[in-house]
Structures are given as structure tokens and as C-alpha cells.
Amino acid sequence: MVGSQKYGTEEEAQETPRFQRKTLTAPAPFADETSCQCQAPHEKLTIAQARLGTPVDRPVRVYADGIFDLFHSGHARALMQAKTLFPNSYLLVGVCSDDLTHKFKGFTVMNETERYEALRHCRYVDEVIRDAPWTLTPEFLEKHKIDFVAHDDIPYSSAGSDDVYKHIKEAGMFVPTQRTEGISTSDIITRIVRDYDVYARRNLQRGYTAKELNVSFINEKKYRFQNQVDKMKEKVKNVEEKSKEFVYKVEEKSHDLIQKWEEKSREFIGNFLELFGPDGAWKQMFQERSGRMLQAFSPRQSPNSSPTRGRSPSRSPSPPWVFNKASPPSSPKAASASLSSMSEGDEDEK
């Protein structure tokens, strides 16, 4: 394929003529900026010969033409098919001028200069022919040494003819391409017209004037009011989203707080039961203190070798309110009984 001829350094591309592009970074040249690169006599080829890649001394020159308004993927795919029809091909693309297009087809969105430039930067295009004719003449085909014309096979009625490519087909120079469904310049324009209000409002918001957009005074006010309404809706939507986010965060924190409170509550209840429960530490401490108080009221007995037992009976008896250390009462009741017995003994002595 000719694609291999496009590779090279930028210096080589600058040193050689523009029609001998060696890099994809350079745009395709215009036809009037170069001359035909076919050095050998231009011999008529058959499609079978072209598909075999012959003749080897030159590429097969394929021509595709069109308006190419609002250049889109459908255009690019058609040019890709035209470029890859044969193993070794050179694609020329003819673009009709504004005057010719407005006369036979209608008004365009892009002017001719914009359409020319769009084609120059398509990777499949090797050369652009400006102000291309509406109907291909033998003189035009001979001037540019065109071998085949590539276009979709749908009859194209225009300029008083049922099919402007009829004579090309009869000459055996027509090669059909497949049309890309779902995309066309007319479809894009239809979308713009259908959504005109949306685009007009958007461009007014971006700074375009009503005069530039051909919008009346009333419609301008209506569009600006709608823009304000949309801004308010957007603000309300943002507030709702932020509110939902805040509520979600509060719910998360509340869940965490409740979980921590439950954990602390269980811990508090466990500590309380451990301290004041049936077998808690408080009960044990209370029992220990009760035992100590009872021991304070009823001290332990002295040993038998106590010196109080060895005292002489001649010595004066102990006062009645002093307990005998040798036989201490084992309980408060015993202590009261001992006191009563001592009082009786004293009366007997008297």
C-alpha cells in the first residue's frame, strides 16, 4: 500500500515536494500545489489488474468527491474504503466550492475553506482537489490521471441527471463503497434544528449575543429566564445531595454512638453486678466487717498459763465490772450471764 510511503523524518518531508509526503504529520497537499507524480504513460487499468497491485511502477489513482460538510465519521469511513480498495493506491479527494454547492444542493454549515482544511487532515487522503466539478468530465479525469472513481452505489440524481456517475459506471471506472448508516450531515443538522432552543440557551450563557444567534428579543428573555430556572434547579439539586450526604453521615455517627453506648452500658451493668450482686465483692466485704465487729465484742480466751490464775485468794477480788480474763464470755449473752453470777456471788459474800 501507499501508506508505506508516508513514513520518514520531518527533514526529509521538508526537503522533498509536498506531494511526496513521508510522514503522517504533514497535511495532504492541494492539487494545484503539485503535479501528477505518474512518470510512466497513463495506461487504462482494469479492476482485476488494480486488485493485483499492478502496474508496479505507479500507484492506482482513486478519486472520491463530495461536499463533506460537517466532516464526520461517515465521511472518514468512506475515504478509508476508497483508500484500501487496492493494494497500492493514491487517493485524490475532490471538494465542491460554495457557489457550486449552494446552486445544486443548498446552503452549507461550513464554508469551502473549512471543508478543504478538514479533508487535508484526514489520514486517508493523499491529495485534495479544490473547486471540484459537480459532474466528472473526460477532460477532468485525464488532467488528474484518474483510474477509478469511488462512491456509494446509490444513484445520485442531481444537475438534471438521474445518476451523475452513470457514464463513469459505463466506462468501467466506478468502484462502489459501503455507506455508513446512522450518520450523515443531514442527520446532524436535523439534531441541531430539533434541539435549537437548547443550543441557543447554551450559547447565550457562554456569551454569544442574540443578534449573533438570530434570536428575537422575546426569545432571548425567555431563554435567559429558562437559564435562571435551570440554575435554581441545579442549586436545589446540589442542596438535596449535600443534605442526603449530611443525613448519611449523621446516621453513621449515630449508629457508632449507639453501639458505643451499648458497649459502655453492658460494661457498667457487669461492673455493678460484680460489686453488688449476690456473690459480689460488696457482700464479701460486709461479711468480713461483720465478723470483725463480732470478734471485737467477744475477744478470744487467754492461755491457761495466764498470771491472773496464780494470784492469791487473799488479795482483794476484782471489781464486779471487770471481766475475768481467764474465762472470757464467748458471746454477749454469756457476758451478761457472767455479770449476773458475779453479782449473786457478791451478795452471798455480804
TrEMBL record:
Residues 63-191 form the Cytidyltransferase-like domain. It comes from the Eukaryota. InterPro entries: CCT, Cyt_trans-like, Pcy1-like, Rossmann-like_a/b/a_fold. Gene3D superfamilies: HUPs. Its EC number is 2.7.7.15. Residues 1-22, 296-350 are annotated as: Disordered. Residues 302-315, 326-343 have a biased composition (Low complexity). Pfam families: CTP_transf_like. Keywords: Lipid biosynthesis, Lipid metabolism, Nucleotidyltransferase, Phospholipid biosynthesis, Phospholipid metabolism, Transferase. It catalyses: phosphocholine + CTP + H(+) = CDP-choline + diphosphate. GO terms for molecular function: choline-phosphate cytidylyltransferase activity; phosphatidylcholine binding. CDD domains: CCT. Pathway: Phospholipid metabolism; phosphatidylcholine biosynthesis; phosphatidylcholine from phosphocholine: step 1/2; Lipid metabolism. Belongs to the cytidylyltransferase family. Catalyzes the key rate-limiting step in the CDP-choline pathway for phosphatidylcholine biosynthesis. PANTHER family: CHOLINE-PHOSPHATE CYTIDYLYLTRANSFERASE B, CYTIDYLYLTRANSFERASE. This is choline-phosphate cytidylyltransferase. The lineage of its organism: Eukaryota, Metazoa, Chordata, Craniata, Vertebrata.
